[in-house]
Amino acid sequence: MTLHAAIKVEAGSFSLEIDLRIGDEVVAVVGPNGAGKTTLLRTLAGLIAIQSGEIVIDDLIVDRPDTDVFLLPEARPIGIAFQDYLLFPHLTASENIAFGLRASGHGRRAAKEIAEHWLERLGIVAQSDSLPSALSGGQQQRVALARALARDPKLILLDEPFAALDAATRGEVSDELSILLRTVGTTALLVTHELRDIERVADRVIVLEGGRCVQTGSLEELRMQPATPFFSALQRG
Amino acid sequence: MGSARFGLRASLRRRRTRLLARAQRRIPFPVLLAGLIGLAFFLLPLLSLVVRVSWGSLWSDLSSPVAFQALRLSLECSLASTALSLILGVPLAWILARAHFPGRALVRAIVLLPMVLPPVVGGVALLFAFGRSNGVFGPWLFHNFGIQLTFTPAAVVMAETFVAMPFLVITVESGIRSLDPRFEEVAQTLGASPRRVFWRVILPLLRPTLFAGAALAWARALGEFGATITFAGNITSRTQTTPLAVYLLLESNPPAAIALSVVLLAVSLAVLVLLRDRWFGLKR
């Protein structure tokens, strides 16, 4: 899978301008608050339209203003998981995962089967019929990740998926995610504030500041030569 | 020794915290007195009503033809009015909550006006809109379709809806506003069409709100008096709802009037209990 996003987005006084190429890899996006990390994810997902440039996933143009192409979020091969999970509170764990499958044409039974398979894979099959309110944070995030991955998206966007978890659970879930992403082979963009998440999950890091990409490279490269004080500060914790 | 002293100090500190908390909770006497009088003002009439009920003949009072027909008509019309309020009120609430257009404040004011308008004025307004001879649209309806609304059960439903629907609209609008839009966004990124988002995500999330709004509107419709008597009249078994019957029976058959009043009181109480989580901010 390749994602090419050469985009310009303006919202009030803030502007995000970035040229991004991602292959089959997990890319961590770091940067101070207000750098445009969430805006970047929302733009790729189709929740924000770009003003100029283009977003192309493999051969599929999903947003290109000059040819008037704009695919709605539901038509993009992209999954997204949020910091606060956003599981549908009225649906069970299994139904949450099945939601996207049903929406993309799977029958009720097939969707349920795939959902159960995911629950098994993530070790929470016992919680299959529990409502989100009865799940722990770690369990909820596992369901949210499964929900995003179950539709087999080409690209998955993770907006600080571990931020609300305690340290121990955080390690567990990020390790699982790392293994999962590698076995599924899904390309991922991970917004995070934690160096440990990058170490565990990411192949490459993008440093975003003020709506611009100020540096990109492997964690080692960034450690050796951070381009801005932000990454040095991140390293010190 | 050291730890004993530390323990003593901690217990002193706890005691001071307790005293302070108690002082902060204390309500000044005049406030307390006025509050109690206010409570009694509500409680005494309601209790007096219950005291005056002749429990022995309650059932026969309620099953007398006038009372029974009034109760049945009230039930039918108020349920029809609640259904109508849902069908028309939810889209209105949706538009008020989500659409941006000039004059939205004015639209909201018009929709909510019946909440503060004297119901009898609403009845008069309905009469001059749909009255068969003196209405603006009434004669047209009658001559083209043979429809006469005034003095029919349909008029009762319209009068009740006029007065009750704003309660539903205001409840549902605030419910829609407090929905986290990101649930819809997640559903979209999962491939859900707008229709699926509405039926599978928004509507289930709104269910408690819809229920609360419908219960409020129903209770209001059930108690409607002024608009109904003005627009629909007071015809036994056709337009005489329970509140109208209470008013009429107070002259001719006070025990039946009291019996019907107690039924209305009990229903109102039941609605309040049903909605208490929402109104008093208590979680189940």
Description:
The complex is a heterodimer of chains A (237) and B (284). Chain A has 237 residues and is an alpha/beta fold. Chain A has a single domain, classed as 3-Layer(aba) Sandwich (Rossmann fold). Helix content of chain A is 37%, strand content 27%. Chain A is built from eight helices and eleven strands. Chain A starts with a strand and ends with a helix. Chain B has 284 residues and is mostly helical. The C terminus of chain B is likely disordered. At the A-B interface, strand 7 and helix 2 of A face helix 9 and helix 10 of B.
Features:
heterodimer; A: 237 residues; Rossmann fold; 37% helix; globular; B: 284 residues; mainly alpha; 2 domains; 14 helices; flat
Please give a quick description of this structure.
The complex is a heterodimer of chains A (237) and B (284). Helix content of chain A is 37%, strand content 27%. With 237 residues, chain A is of the alpha/beta class.
Cα distance spanning the termini of chain B: 48 Å
Could you describe the largest sheet of chain A, including whether it forms a barrel? 6 strands, mixed
Radius of gyration of chain B: 26 Å
Shape of chain B: flat
β-sheet strand percentage of chain B? under 5%
Number of domains of chain B: 2
Structural class of chain A: alpha/beta
Termini separation of chain A: 33 Å
Write the H/E string of chain B, N to C: HHHHHHHHHHHHHH
The CATH first-level class of chain A comes to Alpha Beta
CATH fold title of chain A? Rossmann fold
Mean pLDDT of chain A equals: 92
**Series of secondary-structure elements of chain A, N-terminal to C-terminal:** EEEHEEEEHHHEHEHEEHH
Q: Unreliable runs of chain A, pLDDT <50, ≥5 residues?
A: none
- CATH homologous superfamily descriptor of chain A: P-loop containing nucleotide triphosphate hydrolases
Beta content of chain A comes to 25-35%
SSE topology:
The complex is a heterodimer of chains A (237) and B (284).
Chain A: E1 3-11, E2 14-22, E3 26-30, H1 37-45, E4 52-57, E5 60-64, E6 69-70, E7 78-82, H2 93-103, H3 108-121, H4 137-150, E8 155-159, H5 167-184, E9 187-191, H6 195-201, E10 204-209, E11 212-217, H7 219-224, H8 229-236
Parallel strand pairs in A: 3-9, 3-10, 7-8, 8-9
Antiparallel strand pairs in A: 1-2, 1-4, 4-5, 5-6, 10-11
Helix pairs in contact in A: 2-3, 2-4, 3-4, 4-5, 5-6
Chain B: H1 2-25, H2 29-52, H3 58-62, H4 65-98, H5 104-116, H6 119-130, H7 138-145, H8 153-177, H9 181-189, H10 194-222, H11 226-231, H12 242-252, H13 254-274, H14 276-279
